[in-house]
Amino acid sequence: MLTVKNQSYMSTKMFHVQMLRTQLLYVRAYLFTCRSDAGQKLRKLVWPREHLYEHVHLYSVFDLQLVASGQLVSKVRYAVTFGRDHVTHCEVCSVRGFHCELCSDNEVLYPFQLGNTYTCGVCYGVYHSSCARGRKECPRCVRRAARKEHPGQENT
Ligand SMILES: [Zn+2]
Ligand SMILES: [Zn+2]
Ligand SMILES: [Zn+2]
Question: pLDDT tens across 55-107, in order?
């Protein structure tokens, strides 16, 4: 297994696969905590390459061949599409979306919408990428820090 993290070394195909794997990771977080059989189905779609979402930067030599031939992209894209479809239609998963606190828009955001969302790496809060751009602080993290400093004041 090889770890591929540095994006400047990535080919376009590789970069594409990496984006999809990141989406797969988020999708999986929803499906594996859903009571339906969707998590099981996702696992079957990805099997026997669970490292695709368990260690998103890890590639076997065989994976790299599949990246080159384009097969890995279609496999992962298929799993991601399945997962996204489930989340938006499942009554348990769909309510676990986020609202952007930076603009208070009513639109429901999910972390796997990589194209137009930004996910905080610390608290996993999700914002519009356009709202998060240029911001240094995440409001959820700021609230958490404030709670730590002033325990007891929960309603901030
Ligand atoms: Zn669900
Ligand atoms: Zn926003
Ligand atoms: Zn945060």
Answer: 999 999 999 999 999 999 999 999 999 999 999 999 999 999 999 999 989 99
83 CA distance to ligand 1 centroid (A)? 9
Strands 2-3 and 58-59 turn out to be antiparallel
| Residue (of 60, 77, 105) closest to 13 by Cα position | 77
For residue 31, the one-letter residue type is: L
Domains of the chain: 2-96 (no CATH), 97-156 (3.30.40)
Cα(87) to centroid of ligand 1, in Å?
Answer: 6
Q: Are 27 and 112 in contact (CB under 8 A)?
A: yes
- Which ligand number lies closest to the CA of residue 41? 1
| Closest-approaching ligand to the CA atom of 104 | 2
DSSP H/E element including 28: helix 12-31
E strand or H helix at 86: helix 71-89
Instruction: Note the pTM of the prediction, 2 decimals.
Output: 0.86
Segment 29-57 shows an average pLDDT of 95
| Distance (Å) from CA 124 to ligand 1 centroid | 19
Tell me the C-alpha distance between 138 and 151, whole Å.
Answer: 20
